[in-house]
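Section handout 9: paired folding examples.
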Amino acid sequence: MASSSLRVHVLRVRPGQDLVQSLKDLVSESGLRAPFILSCVGSVTSVRLRLASATAAEPNQVLDLSGPFEILSLVGTLNPEAHLHLCVGDSIGRCVGGHVLGPLPVLTTAEVVVGEAPALCFSRHPDPQTGFNELVVEDRDQDQD
């Protein structure tokens, strides 16, 4: 287990912008090395989600859906290879969720609070047990900051 203090970054993504790319841009432009989603509210026009039944050997359990959708939950880490899970609700309240694949085009807005653990560094490496690239957390070398 690792621990760190917390820095907070806030981002508003506007209509038509890609939420995923906007988060990647924030990470890159701010030099964040251990970022994660604290909170997100807003709406998107479409989603592409990998379902829980997918495996590394059989990754094609995918939903492509057109909205509009309210973002009910967005969680994950934003290391160079973002790992995001999303739950959205449609216009009659049905919910669907899964691992985000591809862009999330914003409908009206997306207000995102991103945390960073400044004493840590996130990366992803292949895990032979799961078959996926999994999170690796390391102490940040303070001399490199």
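Moving on to protein 2 of 2.
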Amino acid sequence: MKILKMLVEDGRKTLREIADEVGLSTSGVRRRIKVLEDEEILEGFTAKVNPEKAGYGIAAFLNIDVKSSEAGRVAGTLTRCKGVCEVHKTTGNHGLIAKVRAEDRADISEFVEDRLSTYQGVKDVNITMTIETYKEDLIDI
């Protein structure tokens, strides 16, 4: 877990730096990372982008009321759309929830009105715009 936490905090850490901190050899660290990858706990290494500085200053959550037989297809389409960060099947009234990032509110409204609401099986979309983001991480270990 300590190796995983270190990689989440800084994916650029060298094997030597990790080894020194956890008291293992570099080959021992390499083996443990390989196990994390093989068990699909660690799915890869990526850069963390500041969405606001990259031009995606607005976040919104879309509660999508979708026909249950179309949920998988709509979710699959959403996963390929620019600005869509997350898509989840949910319990309750809606069926899907998506987190979207865009340059401004108009971009989100346009995405919902011109694209998402036209997808087959989508009955309604309720948009919740964020005002401020206090924390946005994949997981805090």
